[in-house]
Design a protein that fits this description.
Helix content is 26%, strand content 37%. The protein contains three helices and eight strands, in the order ββαββααββββ.
């Protein structure tokens, strides 16, 4: 089964959508298999991250911003603003596809793990994800 999920973002940061992906898995009735999620964008990414303490997500965001700062004089792809090329680099350094095993009809995530869209653009957007569930 293939489903589409849209995640609205309002600027940089991690937006959890675990429950929405789990709903797709539950709808399929697959007890054991694999769930693959892909984001259809080049300036946002996906990650599995801690869902209990928001400071972990805040620290990740700060670290990635220090690693890939805006206004690098070497960037030529800047027509959409100073966060344009850094957003593409951040997406390339992280993940645009995730694969999560399904056990007992549930995503086999750890106790403190959640699925996140990681928005890298300042303006935010509606991000489209494709979810595939199979045995």
């Amino acid at each position: 089964m293939v489903a589409r999920i849209e995640v609205s973002t309002s600027g940089p940061g991690l937006y959890e959508f675990t429950d929405r992906v789990q709903a797709v898995v539950s709808e399929t009735g697959v007890a054991e298999g694999l769930c693959t999620v892909m984001i259809q964008h080049t300036s946002a990414s996906l990650t599995i991250q801690e869902n209990a303490d928001p400071s972990a997500r805040h620290d990740l965001e700060g670290w990635l911003n220090r690693l890939v700062p805006e206004d690098d004089p070497h960037f030529t792809h800047t027509h959409e603003g100073p966060d344009d090329m850094p957003s593409h680099i951040k997406a390339a350094l992280t993940s645009t596809t995730l694969s999560i095993p399904i056990l007992g009809g549930r995503l086999a995530l750890g106790t403190w793990q959640g699925l996140y869209v990681w928005e890298h653009r300042r303006r935010g957007s509606t991000r489209r994800c494709v979810v595939h569930v199979g045995p």
